[in-house]
Recover the amino acids of this structure.
């Protein structure tokens, strides 16, 4: 794995309620090294979530580009992106009527072909992802009945099952208790160091970021507009 993220002269914006576009940051230029856990920090409104969406290919930048392992994200097909990048967003997963296991199984869809049939190997990967997030007892539970913290863990398990070289997480510890936050950060650091994943997460948790991350990036320092 060990896929670096190259952010090159990136200008990003978001849509306002009136339908106009507001530029947040200009000319972001940095490299998120492969096989590292990097924490993205900064005040609300500085563009952390928007940057993560742009890196994931969910939103186009105004200017500049993002490359992963040398390949422009904007030029990747949806399936290729799904095999390279997994993302965990801060809102509850859209999983009405799905159980935790069924949600996590969706992480295997980039590999299962048109009919989405899981192999024995796929099921083992799903089992491991559920176990890593300590969700075994909730595997058959409908996702829409989970607490916010449990739903967040299920979304992270889905990303783990996707087995991508790059994992992006937007405020992944927001709904977790302190012990669960520590366990998650330990797991993410292990995935980066032992399995070569490149992990970028946004967070307001300064203490945990400095304790577990290999590098802390502040949006205010990356942006040429500040």
């Amino acid at each position: 794995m060990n896929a670096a993220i190259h952010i090159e002269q990136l200008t990003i914006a978001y849509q306002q309620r009136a339908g106009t576009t507001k530029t947040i940051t200009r000319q972001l230029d940095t490299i998120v090294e492969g096989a590292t856990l990097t924490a993205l920090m900064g005040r609300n409104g500085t563009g952390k979530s928007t940057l993560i969406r742009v890196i994931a290919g969910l939103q186009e930048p105004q200017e500049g580009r993002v490359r992963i392992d040398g390949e422009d994200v904007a030029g990747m097909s949806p399936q290729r992106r799904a095999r390279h990048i997994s993302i965990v967003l801060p809102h509850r997963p859209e999983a009405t009527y799905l159980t935790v296991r069924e949600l996590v199984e969706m992480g295997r869809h980039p590999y299962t072909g048109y009919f989405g049939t899981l192999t024995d190997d796929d099921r083992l990967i799903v089992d491991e992802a559920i176990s890593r997030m300590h969700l075994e007892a909730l595997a058959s539970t409908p996702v829409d009945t989970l607490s916010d913290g449990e739903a967040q863990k299920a979304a992270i398990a889905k990303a783990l099952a996707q087995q991508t070289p790059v994992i992006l997480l937007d405020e992944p510890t927001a709904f977790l208790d302190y012990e669960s936050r520590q366990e998650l950060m330990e797991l993410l650091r292990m995935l980066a160091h032992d399995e070569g994943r490149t992990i970028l997460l946004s967070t307001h948790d300064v203490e945990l970021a400095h304790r577990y991350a290999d590098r802390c990036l502040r949006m205010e320092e990356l942006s040429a507009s500040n």
